[in-house]
């Protein structure tokens, strides 16, 4: 176990919309809960990792950096990282796993804090994304073509499935219906009741074929995962979950839209790093900033063939909590809230520990996949309870 990496603690702040509590305090709330969950003390933390780090030009999207956490908690770290130059959100956890495997740290706090709803309500405190007379960064490759939102380019991939593979809105709806049903059983989720197909079909369109219920909503929250070295497990009091494998990829924004999103190469690569395979997985927690994205992950990870994901989820039975492949059991981002990827690692640990309460899947789950992103960038974790 010495050269393995484990998730030993999970924590989450209040999840809400337009919260008054500051993003740093939400982050500290989640850290406190994760530390207690692992049975550690702050003196034992020697690493911190986040994605994408504090973004001064877009504080609602990412308002807290690694340096603030280290400073306010008086941490004595040997290793830390936090920047947008990573595969995707869960890449921060994969980086922490690499660090503890290399002996650079023993216990690493990994966090993702979002404050987009509150920032929109208080622009004087959290100014919106600043424009400087021109376009720069990734937006220069998308905005001139009308892709002002990720919904626009995600919809293009989804429409390809409509035109080439015959995906219907009723099939796509199963992602949102499943998320809402599971969120209704999750006391920390924003959504409190199931969604009906009639209500879904009647909602306004955002970018065809995506409707209102296919899109996550801005949320204020912080999620924390503690990654520990295998030879430090004697210091931990929780049930550890091993990071059995990880993978990630980034598609160049400056090229024309790729034929297949990054979920596909990332899903393929995940299995190259482990003896596990799709048939061994008990539950999947798949990124769903938009409802079409879990379909790409199901295909990319090999649970079905490319172009068959909408048929795999048709009717919703296969991905239900008591189905063949329970998916997004905490409600995903469509039901729980836009936790920006980290909520999927959190929920995977909850399920593998058997701590899901009303939403706990049956049996004795031992293997889970958690993903983030999936468009121009993607990251995936394979988690196992040994």
UniProtKB/TrEMBL annotation:
Q: What is its EC number?
A: 2.3.1.-
Q: Which UniProt keywords apply?
A: Acyltransferase, Transferase
Pfam families xrefs: Thiolase_C_1 (PF22691)
Which parts of the sequence belong to the Thiolase C-terminal domain?
267-380
Checking InterPro entries in the record gives: Thiolase (IPR002155), Thiolase-like (IPR016039), Thiolase_C_2 (IPR055140)
Provide the top EC class: transferase
What GO MF terms are annotated? acyltransferase activity
Q: What is this protein called?
A: Thiolase family protein
Query: From what organism does this protein derive?
Result: Sphingomonas tabacisoli
């Amino acid at each position: 176990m010495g050269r393995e990496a484990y998730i030993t603690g999970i924590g989450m702040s209040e999840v809400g919309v337009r919260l008054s509590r500051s993003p740093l305090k939400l982050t500290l709330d989640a850290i406190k809960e994760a530390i207690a969950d692992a049975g550690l003390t702050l003196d034992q933390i020697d690493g911190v990792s986040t994605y994408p780090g504090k973004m001064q030009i877009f504080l609602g999207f990412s308002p807290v950096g690694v340096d603030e956490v280290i400073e306010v908690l008086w941490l004595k770290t040997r290793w830390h990282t936090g920047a947008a130059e990573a595969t995707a959100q869960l890449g921060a956890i994969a980086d922490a796993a690499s660090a503890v495997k290399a002996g650079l740290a023993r216990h690493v706090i990994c966090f993702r804090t979002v404050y987009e709803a509150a920032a929109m309500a208080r622009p004087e405190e959290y100014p919106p994304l600043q424009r400087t007379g021109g376009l720069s960064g990734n937006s220069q490759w998308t905005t001139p073509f009308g892709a002002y939102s990720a919904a626009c380019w995600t919809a293009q991939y989804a429409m390809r499935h409509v035109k080439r593979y015959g995906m219907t809105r009723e099939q796509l709806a199963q992602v949102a219906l499943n998320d809402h049903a599971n969120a209704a059983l999750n006391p920390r989720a924003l959504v409190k009741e199931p969604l009906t197909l009639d209500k879904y079909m009647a909602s306004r369109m955002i970018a065809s074929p995506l409707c209102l219920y296919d899109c996550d909503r801005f949320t204020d929250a912080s999620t924390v995962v503690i990654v520990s070295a295998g030879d430090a497990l004697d210091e931990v009091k929780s049930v550890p979950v091993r990071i059995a494998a990880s993978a990630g990829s980034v598609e160049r924004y400056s090229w024309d839209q790729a034929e297949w999103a990054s979920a596909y190469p990332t899903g393929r690569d995940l299995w190259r790093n482990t003896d596990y395979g799709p048939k061994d997985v008990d539950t999947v927690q798949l990124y769903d900033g938009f409802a079409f994205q879990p379909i790409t992950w199901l295909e990319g990870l090999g649970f079905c063939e490319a172009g068959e994901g909408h048929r795999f989820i048709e009717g919703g039975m296969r991905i239900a909590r008591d189905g063949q492949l329970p998916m997004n059991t905490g409600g995903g981002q469509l039901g729980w809230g836009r936790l920006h990827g980290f909520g999927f690692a959190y929920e995977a640990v909850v399920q593998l520990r058997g701590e899901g309460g009303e939403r706990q899947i049956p049996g004795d789950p031992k293997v889970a996949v958690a993903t983030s992103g999936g468009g121009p960038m993607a990251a995936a974790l394979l988690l196992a309870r040994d």
